Amino acid sequence: MKNYIVLDLEWNQNAGGKEEAVDHFPFEIIEIGAVRLNETMEETGEYRRLIKPRVYTELHEKILEVTHMDQQTLMEEGICFEEAVKEFFLWCGDDPVFCTWGSMDLTELQRNIAYYGLPDPFKKPLLYYDIQKLYSLLEGDGKDRVSLDVAVFESKVMEDRPFHRALDDAHYTGRIMSKMDFKKVEAYWSTDYYCLPANKEEEIYLVFPRYSKYISRPFESKQAAIEDKTVTDLICCKCNRMLKKKIRWFSVNQKVYTALGCCPVHGNVKGKIRLRRNDERMVYVVKTMKLIGEDEIGGIYEKKDEAKKKRVEKTKVRKQNKKKGAIPPS
Q: Positive or negative CA dihedral for 157, 159, 162, 166?
């Protein structure tokens, strides 16, 4: 039996702005809401707790505006975070399959858990369903994301209950799941990146119907990451074959690298490397390999030409600046 836990969180932030926030702790969770769904997407239970803030004790004006939360009620009825987390995971039960609207909730939950020095209760890697992404795959182009209230309206599941409170948003997300053709998209797990692989042996490889994903361990620098052979290997997402390169790795903005390979069995495969930083400012890689049609190849060549033009222009500017800074002969 599936045990879907649809989770939503509300959090506070420093009322004085990001500059005064605690390092690696931008958001403090002040409410946990969740509903449990069975295999037929029927709601079989719910959980809600207010959490008394201890770091950012004054509610940010945007939080007050969006949630309409009463600060006095929060301080009087809220329990401590440690107690709420323990209670919540007991409620979740065995083998929970976490579902969220968007990708932030599980990251911030882990960040709060780490701040309070609690043991991380999640399995590694932490796979979950991003219902916002799945909704886009079914109802959109798979790239654009719509807000929860828009999806609720489009799915015709609107009820006489507000948005932007944890339990209500969790309930609405569950209602959208009940209307989705979930079987069509259940293969498309999302991966949380908060807790990265500790070493090469723990690096993550996931295979989906039309693409594969690789998540690396952290590297000390971007240069170290892109010099790693596993990072730059161009491999077919279907048969794991090393590919013949039609376009070698190139980058327009130094954060995203693109390449094109050809598999003799499955055709053209586009590679994309995204360079990201964790809380410790170390670099990690998310690489996807995706089957593409002939109509998409032209766009890759155009991006490559754009990257070449930028390199030429950058070199030209550097030479001009060097010439300007040169000391004239006496």
A: negative
Strands (E), the chain: 4-12, 28-37, 43-50, 97-100, 127-130, 190-191, 204-207, 211-215, 244-251, 256-263, 267-277, 283-291
- Structural domains in the chain, CATH included, are 4-184 (3.30.420.10), 197-311 (no CATH)
Is 44 exposed, middle or buried (CB count within 10 Å of its CB: 0-12, 13-18, 19+)? exposed
CB 148 within 8 A of CB 172: yes
Backbone angles phi, psi at 265, to 5 degrees: -100, -45
87, exposed or middle or buried, with CB in 10 Å at 0-12, 13-18, 19+?
Answer: middle
pLDDT tens track for 146-174: 999 999 999 999 998 989 899 999 999 99
- d(CA 273, CA 33) in angstroms, rounded, equals 35
- Residue 202 DSSP symbol: G
In whole angstroms, what is the distance from residue 243 CA to residue 268 CA? 9
- Cβ within 8 Å of residue 243, ≥6 positions away: 234, 235, 236, 261, 262, 263, 269
Closest Cα partner for 31 from 53, 62, 3, 4?
A: 53
pLDDT above 70: residue 327: no
Is residue 190 within 8 A of residue 107, CB to CB? The reply is no
Mean predicted lDDT score pLDDT of the chain: 94
- pLDDT tens-digit readout, 14-72: 988 888 899 999 999 999 999 999 999 999 999 999 999 999 999 999 988 888 888 89
Strand 97-100 and strand 127-130: the pairing is parallel
pTM of structure: 0.90
